From TrEMBL:
Listed GO MF terms: acyl-CoA dehydrogenase activity; flavin adenine dinucleotide binding
Pfam family, one: Acyl-CoA_dh_N
The name this protein goes by in its record: 3-sulfinopropanoyl-CoA desulfinase
Domain of life from the UniProt record: Bacteria
Its EC number(s): 3.13.1.4
Domain Acyl-CoA dehydrogenase/oxidase N-terminal: 8-117
Coiled coil is among the record's keywords: no
Family named by the database record: Belongs to the acyl-CoA dehydrogenase family.
Organism: Oceanospirillum sediminis
Key words, A-Z: FAD, Flavoprotein, Oxidoreductase
Catalysed reaction, written as an equation: 3-sulfinopropanoyl-CoA + H2O = propanoyl-CoA + sulfite + H(+)
Record bears the keyword Flavoprotein: yes
Amino acid sequence: MINFEPDEQQLNMRRLAQKFARNTIRPVAFEYDDAETPPWPVLAQAAQQGLMSYRYPEQYGGSGIDSVLTACLVSEEFGWGCAGIGNNLLAGDTGVLPILLNGNSEQKSRYIPQFCDKKQVRTGAFALTEPNAGSDISAIRTTAVPDGNDYVINGEKTMITAAGIADLYIIFAQLEHAGITAFIVEADSTGLSIGGTYRKTGMRASQVGSIQLKNVRVPASNRLGEEGQGFYIAMRFFEYNRPVLAALAVGVARAAYEYALEYAQKRVQFGQPVISNQAISFMLADMATEIDAARLLVWRAASLVDKNLPANAQASMAKVYATDMAVKATNNAVQILGGMGVMRDHPVEKWARDAKVLQIVEGTGQIQRMIISQLVSTGKN
């Protein structure tokens, strides 16, 4: 039987995230959007409530709730509150999940407890993209050269979420004769520096920047997985993370829909609420339908991952559909508000900006379609 209802544990986590989004994230969302700075007080409160470590095993100090579907329920609420702040709340996963999925017991014992400390906010960064290597992972030019018990890494990474604020980076580099290999690199490593940060259209509370690696020595014990396993590690991370990112987009779209619906019910033109205009009511009907469809795609992809079944195609389907839908829904919300929709007095213009960024990060819609088409054509979907 197909079950569309979350279980009690999932509902409890969603309620906790809803309350946090309503009482803590939403009230300061526009403040941090304007300031374009990470929301440290919000992150500190989230850490205290276990909202940044609930996915990690109890033996390391987490809550042991490892369900990707649960993470999607939480992520949707974060997106409803603010996608930029929500992305900060998910940043720890970008450093911890690759270790949790591919690390050895020593690596897990060393690093994961740091991210479960409720008194100290920690974030991670997944450093794959380079100036000339976006979604084409084979084009990575960052190199790792063995030197005794270390590897020496040189290169540049760009468009990295949490660059400059992360406590550790998952760095992907080319290793001669072995191929792409992943490494755990601590932020205070000698030779690692921040090249700069970017000013973005949306999700402004989430810091993105570039990092430079000049003769960074990394102990062999910090190699993640085997030599040459970098591509597999990256793809496995995306399979786990894309549904969660897609859920963030569903939350943004839901926020825009709810606001536009209330506005259309209250705004009177020609002697009646604008929602009585069929053009407006049909836009709202489409928004409601497409938000629900996106959510179900997200849940399906997450459920497959939770069952340890192949989900690359479904994760990409969820990501491309949910983010495209969020762009459409937020733009429709702007349209329903008319001239007020582009004014910063109303939040819909922010949500439209945030949705556009979500459409691009972690693989554009075109890249997701490429992945889906390749898997479909080979019967691996």
